[in-house]
Amino acid sequence: VTTTRKVVLTQRPRGVPKETDFALVEADLKELEVGEVLLKVEHLSIDAFIRTMLDDRDGHHGKIDLDAPVTALGIGRVVDSRSEELQQGDAVFGPMGAQTHVIWPAGMLRKLDESSVPARTYLGALGMTTGLTAYAGLICVGKVQPAETVVVSAAAGAVGSMACQIAKIAGARVIGIAGGEEKCDYLRSEMGCDDAVDYKAGDLNSKLKA
């Protein structure tokens, strides 16, 4: 029997979540059934949508039940398998949750190719909530073209910084919006933005028109 340690939601946060809204508990996992795998959780992606799931309302992503593990996408490693699709040692992406071990049907997981990049990359540049979000917005929806001007809001954040780089690769002129001159310098020097605008400095519309 495998024991998992997990962070569960014990009460709905009021405002900013506090440590007392959660608890660390241990529980024994059930035996594997045919088609299931036992995973050791290696990496979690702590994303903004998790906060919306802590409230007592059915939002876009649903809600986390009380005494249930905090939801989080992540990377896991197959420890044991009763599936023909996944073998012991395989790295997978899926809804890991804030816990050390979890059991899922193999069909809910995506096997990761570690031949050229480490598994954790699939939470960042190749991740659904960062790199893929930026790519889909710019390339699939925005259909950015060379020589166009792309303005990226929250450009110093996880998705925004990826969007800046993707837009530059696509040949666009990129203007990043961020809060503070330090972040703006980062966008110019590290993210390749052609220019950056500090929204905290005021007069944002005039600066963008310039």
What is the element layout, followed by pairings?
Blueprint: E1 3-9, E2 22-28, E3 36-45, H1 49-53, E4 73-81, E5 91-94, E6 101-105, E7 110-111, H2 131-141, E8 149-152, H3 158-169, E9 173-178, H4 181-189, E10 195-198, H5 204-209
Parallel strand pairs: 8-9, 9-10
Antiparallel strand pairs: 1-2, 3-4, 3-6, 4-5, 5-7
Structure description:
Helix 2 (131-141) crosses helix 3 (158-169). This protein has two domains: 3-114, Medium-chain alcohol dehydrogenases, catalytic domain (Quinone Oxidoreductase, Chain A, domain 1); 131-209, 3-Layer(aba) Sandwich (Rossmann fold). The chain has helices spanning 49-53, 131-141, 158-169, 181-189, 204-209, and strands at residues 3-9, 22-28, 36-45, 73-81, 91-94, 101-105, 110-111, 149-152, 173-178, 195-198. The strands form three sheets. A five-stranded antiparallel beta sheet has the order 6-3-4-5-7, with no helix packed on it. It is of the alpha+beta class.
Euclidean distance between termini CA atoms: 65 Å
CATH class category label of the largest domain = Alpha Beta
Task: Assign an overall shape.
Answer: globular
| Category from helices, strands and their pairing | alpha+beta
Summed up, the helix count is 5
Order of helices and strands: EEEHEEEEHEHEHEH
Q: Can you give the mean pLDDT?
A: 93
Number of strands: 10
Helical content (DSSP H or I, runs of 4+):
10-25%
